[in-house]
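Example 3.
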Amino acid sequence: MKVLVPIKRVIDYNVKARVKADNSDVDLTNVKMAMNPFCEIAVEEAIRLKEAGSATEVIAVSIGDKACQEQLRTALALGADKAIHIETDAKLESLHVAKLLAKLVEQENPELVILGKQSIDADNNQTGQMLGALTKRGQGTFASKLVIEGENAVVTREVDGGLQTVSLPLPAIVTTDLRLNEPRYATLPNIMKAKRKPLDVIAADTLGVDLAPRVELVKVEEPAKREAGVIVESVEELVTKLKTEAKVIS
Amino acid sequence: MSVLVIAEHENGVLKPETAKVVSAAVKIGSQVDVLVAGHNVAGAADSVASIAGVNVVKLADNASFEHQLAESTADLIVEIAGGYSHILASASTTGKNILPRVAALLDKSQISEIVDVIDADTFKRPIYAGNAIATVKSLESQKVITVRASAFDAAAEQAPVAVESLSNDNANTLSSFVGVEQTESERPELTAAPVIISGGRGMQNGENFALLNGVADKLGAAIGASRAAVDAGFVPNDMQVGQTGKIVAPDLYIAVGISGAIQHLAGMKDSKIIVAINKDPEAPIFQVADYGLVADLFDVLPELEQAL
């Protein structure tokens, strides 16, 4: 079974995003970048499938400018066999990404595609579901457990109010939630080895996808600040204030 | 402008998010229809009929929609989407699962988790875990949108409108339902509760979360948790309030032993009143709290339960 793992280069999750002074976007100049945390979980799951003998090949793919090759090398160091960089400088929406990935799925024909459920920059939570639609495959989103049973992927999904399990005949699409696994760290020997693993570059405009924007970013602002309130001295004072001042309890 | 809203329901009962999404829809256009897709969901459709602003309720009651699988439901929505300028669903796990599939089938770029409607094309949505608010304008002829329900007030009630039955059957071979494990709780759901009390790493272990019960009982509150408490294994993930968990905006939010990481604040900072109880006076949670109490939670909780 071949597994394709799309990954995204995003702001490091420990870094607080700052809005540009002209409100045109978030300022990413000289900001530490990293693999999107949900994508790390996707890579880990694919590697575990390979270690368990269910997967034979793990291919990592990233779409963007040259810099995202850094994250592809990380994926290779973690255990992916091969990487594909779809190169473009265009600002992409989830639909564009899903269309480019659908082209790659057509070429590579993986039985399973594992993606992060969302990226921590745009917070869209769309690409996996869109890829499911475009490739006419079943989708198991927000996975907290993935089991390959014969010709099916059995996916336990984190849903509001509990867990739902679905069975998807392969080929299928899975998106990861936080509890699916705990990603490993790349070891130094593996980082060295990753430098010799194949990394193919495909120019995005050779894939025949219209990448024209469909959503315009009008402006980006700081969220409304909440003013700090008062420090109360006792439980009694707290309850009194909640009753008489805030009037949220009776 | 005509808007199709996808209703949110569970076990045949309409969920309160729907009336909030309708209120977002009313800001966009005057014609608002609501699709109720499921199996044995006529009761939910009747509830939708009484939400103010709804013109027509479309009821697709068929075994193929029983578990609201994305593949079947998306096909159904695409079949009836013609004629609507906007398709809206709650940014719940159900809406998030289904709507991007709809958008791709319609070849439309989706706008996720809007928190405000500027006009029929322009919306506000949080990005970077709520650290920035983007204003985005859709250039699509038909807009596919998920709505952060907690950012909108529920629409009022009206005399019930007509419920129109659809005969669609969209059984699919791409996915099948295996089972569901529902978290059993007597308490209100986090996303619907007017009062929430949440525990963080300061609770020290899962057993200590029982200390929140007494206060929650007195206030009719739901119980939540920070990601730190979930990651530490104290409580299950579906209790998580935060950017990677549930986004809530109750009238009263009580944060107990929660430091106030950005990721947690992103999930609760739109609450009307925030109370923070933490023994560390430097905890960032105090910067967003209306009322802070610097004290040991193990002393405070029993006292608070008594005082209420």
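Helices of chain A lie at 37-51, 69-78, 94-108, 127-135, 188-194, 235-244. The first strand of chain A starts at residue 2 and ends at 7.
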